[in-house]
């Protein structure tokens, strides 16, 4: 598990050394997770809460198109099934309208570590004994679509509010029985620039 932290530490060192963080946004979203068919419903009940924190990196941008990589970390809690922490990377594509609306899409791939929310037992020496849950490693490819709105449409570093419908796959899910499971996350969030010096008076 420790090897997974090294790329993240190297990325953080580069960001701090290059002062790039001054132009980087912070994205925060709350979401509801569900095991469901992709794009079947906008919001699936009951609500299984999650939170995600991330940032975007500047790559290519024109009057109407913005192409950017991003990284996110998150946590979700699915009652009576699992809880999980994850880190993922995405390639986002925004189509920008002059009045502040953005049509948003993103392709991603991530690492998910899940833990059961129920007590686990193992059959040993003729009886069931409590088993420590070390969790399970998963990969989680994803695809997201949604809309955003810039609160200050004439500023390139405007705060944005957004909603996203994200569908993602959990693999492996139950090897030998169900190889993968489809999930959907409905995000409501905001992007803002707390480290931009131009925002400080």
Protein described:
By secondary structure, the protein is mostly beta strands. The chain is 7% helix and 55% strand. The protein has one helix at residues 5-18, and strands at residues 26-35, 49-56, 60-61, 65-78, 82-96, 101-115, 120-124, 127-131, 136-139, 142-150, 160-170, 181-192. It has an eight-stranded antiparallel beta barrel with strand order 1-2-4-5-6-10-11-12. It has a two-stranded antiparallel sheet with strand order 7-8. The chain is elongated, with a radius of gyration of 19 Å.
Short description:
The protein has 201 residues and is mainly beta. The protein contains 1 helix and 12 strands, in the order αββββββββββββ.
Strand order of the largest sheet: 1-2-4-5-6-10-11-12
Number of strands: 12
Instruction: List the secondary-structure elements in sequence, H or E.
Output: HEEEEEEEEEEEE
What class, by secondary structure content? mainly beta
Protein name: Outer membrane protein beta-barrel domain-containing protein
Furnish the topology, listing elements before pairings.
Elements: H1 5-18, E1 26-35, E2 49-56, E3 60-61, E4 65-78, E5 82-96, E6 101-115, E7 120-124, E8 127-131, E9 136-139, E10 142-150, E11 160-170, E12 181-192
Antiparallel strand pairs: 1-2, 1-12, 2-4, 3-4, 4-5, 5-6, 6-9, 6-10, 7-8, 10-11, 11-12
